[in-house]
Amino acid sequence: MTLPLIIYRSLRQHALSTIITAGSIALACGLLMCVWMVKTQSQTAFTQTTTGFDAVLGARGSKLQLVLNAIFHLEASPGNLAWADYEGIKRHPAVKTAIPIAVGDNLRGYRIVGTVPELFEKVEYAPGKKFAVAAGGRLFGGAADAREAVAGAFVARKLGLKVGDTFKPFHGLAFDEKNQHEEVFTVVGVMAATNTPVDRVLWIPIKGVQTMSGHDAKAATDVSAVLIQLRTASAGFMLDMMYNKQGNRLTLAYPVGAIIAELFGKIAWFDQVLTLVAYLVALVAAGSVLASIYNSMNARRRDLAILRALGARRRLIFGAVVAEAACIGALGAVVGFAVYLGLLAGVAEVIRAQTGVVLDVGAKHAVLWVCPLAMVGLCALGGVIPAVKAYRTPVAETLAPVS
Amino acid sequence: MLAVTDLTKSFVSPEGVRGEIVRVREFALAAGEQVALRGESGSGKTTFLHLIAGILAADGGRVTIDGAEMTALGEAGRDQLRAGKLGYVFQTFNLLQGFTVLENVVLGMSFGPRGADRAQAKEVLERVGLGHRLGHFPGQLSTGQQQRVAVARALANRPKLVLADEPTGNLDRKHGREALALIREVCREHGAALLLVSHDEAVLGQFETRRDFAAINEAGQSAGSPRPAASVSR
Ligand SMILES: Nc1ncnc2c1ncn2[C@@H]1O[C@H](COP(=O)(O)OP(=O)(O)OP(=O)(O)O)[C@@H](O)[C@H]1O
Ligand SMILES: [Mg+2]
């Protein structure tokens, strides 16, 4: 009752510095938690994003590029494969499903990907989840040259596409207004959201991309990559041997998740830097608690001496100052949670818009309680130095200073 | 009630000279007794009260309050004894500016054995005529009212002994007389002994028992006063 009153009044009396200090702690805490969660959540989300495939077969080149292009619909295609290569792997006994895709066009920056209806009919993009077309639409027909398109949920929302809308694709993966094709496609369906990169794609029959006006006629049967589901895990190593070690014409990216994990390994230094920055910010925040309480110490000396004269023990005075510092830390940590949620929501939205990968904003992680607790602890530690000063304040001299 | 024997205290002046400020061979106060100490500025009155209250540690001698020996205790023990048995009224009031009137009085009780008691704090504040100002901050009160809060704070804990260090020094004559009458009355009601120091004859004149601090304090009498020339009256 007494201690909380003393702390509360002291915080009130120095309200401005309390708010500023708690604010800086909130920022530090929020930033730290956000950096940490984006790091761990994006790693989890990206390595789990396989849209249901075990491997990708593509032109000889970087496996990472292959996966980014074929699964995440980012990056340029490393090159083409002949239709025969697709048919070859499709017939392989270890392969359960093989889906060809062809890229090379976009609609206002969103990729147009050519594929076969099997993708939607056979593949579970996540365990137990199949692609679905939202009510009122349908998949593009079996007719290979149908000028029909199915829009991913995100593209449809961003571009305002509805069933019945028509569009002319633009050439290339990057949007360039001057490079528009003549073909007119009709949107026949909008996909239900999958929270995967597929949401950012406009699907058309693979023939559509292959035979688009202005595309190389010699490549009219080529595909950009083949997405593969295997019957057994061991089959992956066998195919890896066959394509990557013995062959030298094609590249098999397997397993998809491991290749993305490698990417995160390569950019590990980046989040180390971020983490270091966050730690520094936390230290600065704890230092600011120390400084703000220490600076107000001269103004408080008299109050503390009066409390002593009323019979308060040194211990209590010491505890009051440390607890006050901890309270500022706790206040900061609470506000820091709001900062964290805001920041994370923002970052998650950007990642979603850029990659289609959805972070779990509500995910729990030890950092969410370790960080606030550590912050309170650091602040209490910062309060120790002014508390020692308070502890040492001589009562008689402070109450009746000798001139 | 209060017994002081052979109490000594000396300070080292800024020039590095050790000067004895207090040397009191014998001083006593009976329960409920009210005594005024007359002393010149710089004669060591405040130091004497600080020693009795245990705010300062004595160099030697004994201070016993209601059977408990203050001078035998360590700092924490002195704090506890002060919280339990003493009330202190300062010349400068020494109210906690960031706390309300009621909180100031409650804090005056918090550290004692009985602990905080808001009801009693309110009662004492009503007794000094501030029942309607409980939520005010000291800065929102007149000087006379502030001193009344200080009196209420010193007495809320039902102390055995109240020390008052020129409690009317900051008040004008009329308010000074009122404050003094209030302190004496409330002490009498609570059965507390009162030791008041002052150099104001108008204040001293109110007391039946007056003592000269110079007659008690042998340090002040010695030839070649040890007091530094810079000592200024407050
Ligand atoms: N901490 C200290 N260090 C050195 N000298 C001190 C200290 N405290 C008090 N003194 C000296 O002791 C002497 C007595 O001081 P004290 O405050 O007790 O006087 P006083 O009788 O209360 O005077 P006043 O009426 O002006 O309040 C003064 O000369 C003062 O300078
Ligand atoms: Mg004095």
Give a short summary of the structure.
The complex is a heterodimer of chains A (403) and B (234). Chain A is an alpha+beta fold and 403 residues long.
Describe this structure in words.
The complex is a heterodimer of chains A (403) and B (234). Chain A is α+β, with helices and mostly antiparallel strands. Helix content of chain A is 54%, strand content 14%. Chain A contains 14 helices and 12 strands. In chain A, helix 10 (268-295) packs parallel to helix 13. The model of chain A has no long low-confidence stretch (mean pLDDT 88). In chain B, helix 6 links the parallel strand 7 and strand 8. The longest helix of chain B is centred in the C-terminal third of the chain and has 18 residues, at 173-190. The two termini of chain B are 30 Å apart. Chain B has helices at residues 45-53, 75-85, 101-110, 118-127, 143-155, 173-190, 201-204, 213-216; strands spanning 2-12, 18-29, 34-38, 60-65, 68-69, 86-89, 161-165, 193-198, 209-212. Chain B has 234 residues and is α/β, with parallel strands linked by helices. Chain B has one domain (32-57, 71-213): P-loop containing nucleotide triphosphate hydrolases (Rossmann fold, 3-Layer(aba) Sandwich). Chain B has a 5-stranded parallel beta sheet, sandwiched between helices. Chains A and B meet through helix 1, helix 11, helix 12 and helix 14 of A and helix 1, helix 2 and helix 3 of B. Bound molecules: adenosine-5'-triphosphate and magnesium ion (MG). Magnesium ion is lined by residues 45-46, 165 of chain B.
Strand-helix topology:
The complex is a heterodimer of chains A (403) and B (234).
Chain A: H1 2-13, H2 15-48, E1 55-59, H3 63-70, H4 83-91, E2 95-107, E3 110-115, H5 118-122, E4 124-126, E5 129-130, E6 148-151, H6 153-159, E7 166-167, E8 170-171, E9 185-190, E10 202-205, H7 206-210, E11 225-230, H8 233-246, E12 250-253, H9 256-266, H10 268-295, H11 297-309, H12 314-355, H13 367-392, H14 395-399
Parallel strand pairs in A: 3-10, 6-9
Antiparallel strand pairs in A: 1-11, 1-12, 2-3, 2-8, 2-11, 4-5, 6-10, 7-9
Chain B: E1 2-12, E2 18-29, E3 34-38, H1 45-53, E4 60-65, E5 68-69, H2 75-85, E6 86-89, H3 101-110, H4 118-127, H5 143-155, E7 161-165, H6 173-190, E8 193-198, H7 201-204, E9 209-212, H8 213-216
Parallel strand pairs in B: 3-8, 3-9, 6-7, 7-8
Antiparallel strand pairs in B: 1-2, 1-4, 4-5
Helix pairs in contact in B: 3-4, 3-5, 4-5, 5-6
The complex binds adenosine-5'-triphosphate (ATP) and magnesium ion (MG).
